[in-house]
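Task card 7
Instruction: Convert sequence to structure tokens.
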Amino acid sequence: MLIDASHEKQEEAVLATLPPEFIEMYQSQFTAEGNYAEVTKSFKYIEKLRAKDALRNLPLSVISATEHGMGPEMEIKWAEMQQDLASLSDKTTHVIAQGSGHYVYLEQPALVQREIISILE
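Output:
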């Protein structure tokens, strides 16, 4: 289950679309995840999973938000990266959480619950 999950290439996309004066603010916002260094370190794990094609035959649900507040260019790139994550398995369900921000589980908990139950079944 990936809920508006990070993508190993997201930093390139985010940093390319943000005005320079917002980069430090963006990097300082990862307090729930630990810190910026820990978040970017986690991208290495994603790269390893991708290299091993470790999720190819596993059931996977990808839930993607549509409202991150970083402008239309970034929303398009984010949607493309979410679609790429959905391609990690041949058994993927990709659900778009229309109108939801990054914390889909807070904004649309019934959607997340439905997907969890679906994957368990």
